[in-house]
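Hi R.,

Here are the chain sequences for the assembly we discussed:
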Amino acid sequence: QKEVEQDPGPLSVPEGAIVSLNCTYSNSAFQYFMWYRQYSRKGPELLMYTYSSGNKEDGRFTAQVDKSSKYISLFIRDSQPSDSATYLCAMRANAGGTSYGKLTFGQGTILTVHP
Amino acid sequence: DTGVSQNPRHKITKRGQNVTFRCDPISEHNRLYWYRQTLGQGPEFLTYFQNEAQLEKSRLLSDRFSAERPKGSFSTLEIQRTEQGDSAMYLCASSSLDRDAASTGELFFGEGSRLTVL
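And here is the predicted structure of the full complex:
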């Protein structure tokens, strides 16, 4: 079983829809949770970052972390065609120690927002 | 452009040949990571450098793979005797120790080097 599980989709929604993306994980040491967006043939870029449990909102994007359930979510409101990309959840333990700040990624969910 | 730069962007090679990829990180970043991403999968960690020291290698990094970061600047990833299973996107990322201390955890990725082994 992988440390981080993410439904690969693909997910297709109409413009303006609310999108919900989710990941589950098994490693209790993970404390920092991120969502990266990756356009086709590009490298991933950081979209949202959350430390420990709680919610974080940035414009149309909301990230939620529930450490008790080992479950994280990303919500996109009023989705736009420009949001069409692969969304990767990523997480890590503390930057110190032997984790070296490396990230463990989910499989990625392919999202298409059609006009 | 002051982002992470990777070269070449695409390499097509025949099975058994050696290939080398180069990564130039953001200049003030002392942490450098190599990841591999296959089609339909998320990036998988390969190896990590802090300055010039290679501090961790994944089990994914077989003996045919070697990475270096001389003088703590650019890094190279060499694959010897390539196999078809090596076909993937090789991503380089860098970060700053100071920024990690501030706990954003942000890795800045390059656009990747795509390897196709025929």
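Chain A touches chain B at residues 4, 6, 8, 32, 34, 41-46, 49, 51, 88, 90, 92, 95, 98, 100-108 (CB under 8 Å). Chain A has a mean pLDDT of 91.

Let me know if anything looks off.

Best,
T.
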